[in-house]
Amino acid sequence: MNAPDKAVSQGLIGQSVKRREDGRFLTGRGQYTDDIVLSRQTFAYFLRSPYAHARIKSINTEAAAAAEGVLAVFTGEHFRAVGGLPCGWLINSLDGSPMKEPKHPILADGKVRYVGDQLALVVAETYEQAKAAAQLIEVDYDELTPVVDTAAAKGHAGKVHDEAPDNVCYTWGCGDKAATDAAMAKAAHITRLEFRNNRLIPNAIEPRAANASYNPSDESYTLYTTSQNPHVARLLMCAFVLGIPEHKLRVVAPDVGGGFGSKIFLYAEETALVWAAKQIGRPIKWTADRSEAFLSDAHGRDHATIAELGLDVNGKFLAMRVHTTANLGAYLSTFASSVPTILYATLLAGQYTTPAIYAEVTGIFSNTAPVDAYRGAGRPEATYVVERLVETAAHELNIAPAEIRRRNFIKTFPYATPVGLTYDVGDYEATLADVIELADVAGYPARKAISEAKGFKRGIGYSTYIEACGLAPSNVAGALGARAGLFEAGEVRVHPTGKVTIFTGSHSHGQGHETTFAQVVADRLGIPIEDVSIEHGDTAKVLFGMGTYGSRSLSVGGTAIVKAVDKVIAKGKKIAAHLLEAADTDIEFENGVFKVAGTDKSVPFASVSLTAYVPHNYPLDKLEPGLNENAFYDPTNFTYPAGSYVCEVEVDPMTGVVRVDRFSAVDDFGNIVNPMIVEGQVHGGIAQGIGQALLEHGIYDVDSGQLLTGSYMDYAMPRADDLPSFNVKTAKGTPCSHNPLGVKGCGEAGAIGSPPAVINAICDAIGVKDLPMPATPHTVWKAIQTTR
Amino acid sequence: MSQKITLKVNGRSFTREIEPSRLLVQLLREDLALTGTHVGCDTSQCGACTVHLNGVAVKSCSVLAVQANGAEVTTIEGLAASNGDMHPMQAAFKECHGLQCGFCTPGMVMSAVDLVQHHRCSSEAEIREGLEGNICRCTGYQNIVRAVQSGAQAMKGA
Question: How far apart, in Å, are the Cα atoms of A58 and each of A54, A108, A211, A292, A661?
């Protein structure tokens, strides 16, 4: 379609420009939500359920309401008149029935459904007063049987919602079941694995926070909140929950300290604050402590899966059959239903030509925190299924892991998979060849010998992943059940002096948009990067936005900006034509200068912008003054980042301790705007993937439903000394064919591709077929004992 | 019963009446509006609140404000030179892309400076072990380690 336009390049694309946002972050001048204190500020504390599942027989708030400093106490009954938190994606079951959508109340009403479920809001002059008063609330609970375990939830004696008597939200299918069963019946070999994809707790280091206020003079609300997508929060809150006119709510997501998906969703706390701010007539602030974050942030993953791969005698894949039970938690979070379905099963083709694939997913309710998108969202789970099956099949058939992949790679594009996607470009053999060289696979036998001489075991594991990013073509998503558009919006405001402010609906919470997006704009306009600033995260400034998730910011948000820049250039050409007394069609724009083709007549960008705002010599009969354009961009396809990872581990057989010794990654992200930032994204993703494979596990006690991993004392976050330095390279790459920047997205790749590489390596090292994640020393030690 | 304390923060003297239960991080963030120091956990694990107390890194969530009576405290806001030039460690974090969302960054930088000043950190393994008390969720630590190596060189040269 649109080829990347090199004509106006001043060389900013592909440069590791140092980040413009770093100055404020490094000197303590960042402004995060909890840093904001408003005039007449009050503070909130949420009372949370200590039980996983209980009927609320009564709540007595009298003593709390009378406590020192308390302004108000609210409970579920106050919120009966407003809506519940909506789910943004409708999934239909195989029998055509819609998913079960029980109300997700702002404050629990009648029943609590997980430990941490919020059931009362106390507002006081200070946080300490609110917290102390909450302890005076008397709640009479009638405990019920909790449902915790993913695989046991269906038909469990404990019933989370009356609307779903067997705890099933939906049973959904994808692919051709009959064709898959037929191909599987003819397979010479079937590799079968049964495993869990462990529950993860996202743990952005900034806990969620909100600060809401109401202005009676114009009946408007302002909410500061830790959001990845403030416009979506506003839309959902106004249209589906509180009934506030959308133009009367301003949502600001200032500096946000990491998201990883967990700050996409509309949460009860921020919604309750907006409502309550009007009731008490003062601003209300709430900041989660880490314990609350563990209990109440949406968690990730938590699948129980049985997966089969059918192959012929030559190791050619014939069919894949997958049955997954996905734990959705106690309530449907904003995108919960789509993660283990649309974002999961559609990726099961991986990089391979597997002709028949069928996946069936049962989404279940449980008495645990809601589960939703976490870095990768469905695609890490799919990649784990595919890459564990492929590597296991290779070992079972005695074919080298790289070779079995080569035999099955998709080699011609575009390629339509049997699970609904059409990959536009890719070169999987190239990234695999690159990573084999980068990882020095040739030197592996020598390294293995050295490890063995020390009494250690050594193993190597591969993972060749694909993901679908750049969410999303709205019409495709809509046909699949999305209840929202998935375009992005951008605005280019050229000021009279030629300086430029960009407004984007994308949101940066660590990704570096203020640098990358400025590179794109400065490059295209041929002006210094210092003349461009990027505004994001404020619904009062930015026209609209769907926000940042799914590695979509540059490919979708960046493209919207490019389209708006091109409109500015087109209008600028008309103004220049007038100034230069030439025809519009004779004007060229290059390196920040409009000129008449084939002549030396030219006018610089800043003169054109000044003319647009001081239109004395201006074609006012044909053209409006001003130079301000916006654009909405809805992609025509997903983008398909892909890559090859190789992990080498050393295992101490006496203790089961696994050390990741080498981790090499080659990613094809298409064109790269800022290699430094891209590599940083891959580092962080790999760290989270290794965290999943070796360390992290959100565990609920099966009997009581208590979260056993509710702090950094119990939940093993990857620390600096748990990880090696990674060997990361971006491939020359195949540029995305359907956006003008040729970019695919890089935010999630590391977390998607790495877990199976790590587990494949450990299985190789100790000679077992499978290992559960996280592969803790105890788990690995036990597995080693089975081999003796 | 509130107590009167006097302390120096980033070279400026402050006197405040505070409750004995007040934490140093609360004093800094809420009473002195020095919001560069962050709170990322409630179990003294994440290190986002790290500041220097009499020249030594402490987690300010684990120090009572009254314990800082008479002390000199340096926060991330006070690390740069008086002319505004960033401290070599701050500059190294920018140069090496040692930060993404910026939330753990102030504590990470304060720990890194302490590590270079008071501990052995010549090897990558020593730096990784030295930063064990600071959690970062964004960077995978690789560029933080590079930044500390680079910052250490610059501090020695300064």
Answer: 12, 12, 30, 23, 56
| CATH number, span A206-296 | 3.30.365.10
Work out the minimum CA distance from A753 to partner chain B, whole angstroms: 15
User: Which of the listed residues B52, B78, B104 is the one where a domain comes to its end?
Assistant: B78
**Which of A18, A510, A677 lies closest to B95 in CB terms?**
A18
The yes-or-no verdict on residue A6 having pLDDT over 60 is no
Residues A708-723 have pLDDT tens digits of: 999 999 999 999 999 9
Which CATH number characterizes residue B73's domain?
Answer: 3.10.20.30
Interatomic CA distance for residues A125 and A109, integer angstroms: 26
The residue with tokens 């969202």 is: A377
Identify the DSSP state of B29.
I
The backbone torsions φ and ψ at residue A657, rounded to the nearest 5 degrees and listed phi first, read -70, 130
Structural domain boundaries enclosing B71: 3-78
Please give the CATH topology (third level) of the domain spanning A22-29+487-633: Aldehyde Oxidoreductase; domain 4 (3.30.365)
Q: Which residues of A509-534 are buried (b: 16+ CB within 10 A; e: fewer)?
A: bbbbbbbbbbbbbbbbbbbebebbbb
* Percent of chain B's residues with pLDDT above 70: 99
Chain A nearest CA to B67, separation (Å): 21
Query: Average pLDDT, stretch A767-782?
Result: 98
Distance from CA of B6 to the nearest CA of A (A): 23
B106 shares its domain with B143: yes
* pLDDT band of A511, cuts 50, 70, 90: very high
Establish whether domains A22-29+487-633 and A303-472+637-786 are of one fold. yes
Nearest CA in chain A to B138: A684
**Which residues 676-695 of A have a C-beta within 8 angstroms of B?**
676-677, 679-680, 683-688
pLDDT over 50 at B155, yes or no: yes
Q: Any chain A CB within 8 A of the CB of B86?
A: yes
Report the predicted TM-score, pTM, of the whole model to 2 decimal places: 0.97
**Average pLDDT of chain A?**
97
pLDDT over 90, % of chain A: 98
Q: What one-character DSSP code corresponds to residue A152?
A: T
Q: Cβ A290–B43 below 8 Å, yes or no?
A: yes
Residues B92 and B152 reside in one and the same domain: yes
- What pLDDT is recorded for position A26? 98
What span, in angstroms and rounded, lies between the C-alpha atoms of A379 and A193?
18
Nearest CA in chain A to B140: A684
Same domain for B10 and B70? yes
Question: Which one of B39, B54, B78 terminates a domain?
Answer: B78
Residue B83 lies inside a defined structural domain of this protein: no
Q: Average pLDDT in the A573-594 region? A: 97
pLDDT above 50 for A4: no
Tell the CATH topology of A303-472+637-786: Aldehyde Oxidoreductase; domain 4 (3.30.365)
